[in-house]
Amino acid sequence: MQLINEMKLEFMSKSSNEAFGRVVAAAFASQLDPTIEELADIKTAVSEAVTNAIIHGYENDTGIVEMYCKLYEEGIEIKISDKGKGIEDVELARQPLYTSKPDLERSGMGFTVMESFMDGVEISSELNKGTTVTMFKKLKKT
C-alpha cells in the first residue's frame, strides 16, 4: 500500500472531544473522496474508539487521547490510543454486550460497532500502560 498522507492529533480525554475527533477523522478521509456512507462509517467507528479511551481508558482521570490517520490509495487507517488503565482481557472485551461499566448503562457494543463499520480492527492493550485500537476502512473508488 502506498502512503498518500498522514496526520497526528492529540486531545484531552474529555467527552466533549469525542465529536471533535470524529469530525477531524472524517475531514481527513475526505481527501480520498469517500461516499457519504463511508464517511458515516468512519465517524461512527472513531466515535466508539474515542469514547472507549475516555470512559474506560482514563475513567475519572484526565489524560491524552492520540489519533493517527494514514491515507492510502485503498483507504484509511486510524489509530486511537490512550495511556490509561488498559484492558485486562481483550477477547472478553470484544464480546457483544460485554461491559466493564454496567453501572454507567454502557451497552457493551463499542468493539462490535467498530468491527461492523470498518474492514479491520486490531486491539492491543497492556494493563496500566494503555490501549491502541487500529482500524482500516477500504474506500471504493467511483
From TrEMBL:
Catalytic function, reaction form: L-threonyl-[protein] + ATP = O-phospho-L-threonyl-[protein] + ADP + H(+); L-seryl-[protein] + ATP = O-phospho-L-seryl-[protein] + ADP + H(+)
Gene3D superfamilies: Histidine kinase-like ATPase, C-terminal domain
Domain Histidine kinase/HSP90-like ATPase: 37-141
Top EC group: transferase
The UniProt record lists the keyword Kinase: yes
Highest taxon, organism lineage: Bacteria
Swiss-Prot/TrEMBL keywords: ATP-binding, Kinase, Nucleotide-binding, Serine/threonine-protein kinase, Sporulation, Transferase
Biological-process GO terms, alphabetical: asexual sporulation; negative regulation of sporulation resulting in formation of a cellular spore; sporulation resulting in formation of a cellular spore
Alphabetized GO MF terms: ATP binding; protein serine/threonine kinase activity; sigma factor antagonist activity
Transmembrane segments: none
Record EC number: 2.7.11.1
One Pfam family per UniProt: HATPase_c_2
Physiological role: Binds to sigma F and blocks its ability to form an RNA polymerase holoenzyme (E-sigma F). Phosphorylates SpoIIAA on a serine residue. This phosphorylation may enable SpoIIAA to act as an anti-anti-sigma factor that counteracts SpoIIAB and thus releases sigma F from inhibition.
Similarity comment: family membership: Belongs to the anti-sigma-factor family.
PANTHER family in the cross-refs: ANTI-SIGMA-F FACTOR RSBW, ANTI-SIGMA-F FACTOR RSBW-RELATED
Protein name: Anti-sigma F factor
Name of the gene this protein is made from: spoIIAB
